UniProtKB/TrEMBL annotation:
Residues 73-90 have a biased composition (Polar residues). Transmembrane segments: none annotated. This is CCHC-type domain-containing protein. Residues 24-44, 72-97 are annotated as: Disordered. It comes from the Eukaryota. SUPFAM superfamilies: Retrovirus zinc finger-like domains.
Amino acid sequence: MSMDKDEKSDKKDDMLREILKRIEQLENQNKSNKNPNKNKHNSNMKCAYCGKLGHWESKCFKRLDDEEKLEQNRMTTNTKSQMKYINSNVKVPGNEH
Ligand SMILES: [Zn+2]
C-alpha cells in the first residue's frame, strides 16, 4: 500500500516539475521577446496598418490585399459608370423617328 502512495506522490512531483518547466519555458520566451538584440528582426517591426509584428506597413499583405481589392472596385465602378455614360449618350437610330 505504501508503495502505491509513493508512486502517486512521484507522479505528482513529475507533474509539478513538468508545470515548473513549462513556466520556465514561457518566461524564457517572454524574455527573448523583450530582448531587442535577440529578436531584432521582429520586435522592431510593427505594422501600422494591421498592427501585427514582424513586417512594415509597406510590406503588409493585408494592406496590399485591401489595395488590390480597392483598385479592382474602382476599376469596376469606373467601367460601370462609363457604361452608363455611354448607354445614356448612345442614340439608337430607331428612336429618333
Ligand atoms: Zn500588416
